[in-house]
Every structure is written in structure tokens, then in C-alpha cells.
Specification:
alpha+beta; 6 strands; 22% strand; binds tetrahydrodeoxyuridine
């Protein structure tokens, strides 16, 4: 037996203003998208913005449903919308953020496992690291340069 460890490197920025300009713009678009969230049940309003290699930014927000599992996270709404509207165009980056009228969200929003698995697929076909930026309504920004830092031991198509 031997013990091993997985290192997950990421960057932390004290605020949006500290980010490189392209990242700051993408994150701001995610904040804007969060205003469109349809989250009457959780009241947790999430926004996501995807930047594609052609320079286009595609937005998404969470969309809930009275039949709870029928809803979808903001990240997957944005990624699927981008793949539907710009098929085959590689992804460069994805930003995610959230706000709530009922509580302060001052920690970065961590994408759920299902969204991370979709990010894996996106990164694979994009043939470049997917830059993922996470922020709450306020507070620090976490930046992951590639999905492996967010999703160790990923399930890949090579297993199929
Ligand atoms: N949600 C997202 O949209 N993205 C995440 O990364 C985490 C959770 C949504 C799903 C649901 O509408 C609400 O937030 C509460 O879980």
C-alpha cells in the first residue's frame, strides 16, 4: 500500500477588479445572467457565462421546475446553449456566480458534479484547458485553469 495525494491548483483573486480584463468581463456577464434566474423554489439565483474561441459569450441561468429534477443548473444551460448555437466552436472559459434575496452569498459558487462532468466533455472537444471562474455575489474569485483541478479522477470516453 502507498498513500498518494491529488493536488488541485487554483488562483484566488480578492475581487473582480483584480482579474485580467477578459476574465473580469466574463464574470460580470455571469453576474448579469444571474438576474434572469428562474429559481422560485430555492431562491438561489445562479448565472453562468461561457466564452467561446470565436469571441462570443453565451449566457445561462438556473431554471427550476415544480417537479424539482426537471430543472437545470446555470452552467449546463450556458454550455448546452453554446453547443446548440455554435456547434463545434471550442470553449475557452466559463464563469459562475449567484445571488439570493434571503442570504448573503460571499463565497465562490462551486459547480455541482453533473456540471463538472459536462465541463470535462467540453474541455475534451475544445482541445484546450477550460478556465473556470467562480464567485459568490461578492467576495473572492477562484480560478481553475483546466477542469482536472475541479474534477479529479474524471470519467473519460476512453473508458467506454
Ligand atoms: N445551481 C446551479 O445553477 N449551479 C450550481 O453550480 C449549483 C446549483 C442551481 C440548481 C438549483 O436551481 C439551485 O441552484 C439550488 O440548488
Amino acid at each position: 500500500m502507498r498513500k498518494e495525494q491529488f493536488i488541485c491548483p487554483y488562483e484566488v483573486y480578492d475581487s473582480k477588479e483584480e482579474l485580467p480584463q477578459q476574465d473580469a468581463e466574463l464574470l460580470q456577464r455571469a453576474h448579469d445572467a444571474a438576474r434572469n434566474a428562474y429559481a422560485p423554489y430555492s431562491k438561489f439565483n445562479v448565472g453562468a457565462a461561457v466564452r467561446l474561441a470565436n469571441g462570443v459569450i453565451v449566457l445561462g441561468n438556473n431554471v427550476e421546475n415544480a417537479a424539482y429534477p426537471s430543472g437545470l443548473c446555470a452552467e449546463r444551460v450556458a454550455m448546452f446553449a453554446a453547443m446548440a448555437q455554435y456547434p463545434g466552436v471550442p470553449f475557452e472559459a466559463l464563469a459562475v456566480t449567484a445571488w439570493s434575496a434571503t442570504k448573503a452569498i460571499d463565497e465562490p459558487v462551486a459547480p455541482c458534479g453533473a456540471c463538472r462532468q459536462v465541463m470535462v466533455e467540453v474541455e475534451q472537444f475544445s482541445k484546450r484547458p477550460l478556465r473556470v471562474l467562480c464567485q459568490g455575489d461578492t467576495g473572492v474569485v477562484m480560478v481553475f485553469d483546466g477542469i482536472e483541478s475541479l474534477m479529479p479522477f474524471i470519467f473519460l470516453d476512453k473508458f467506454l
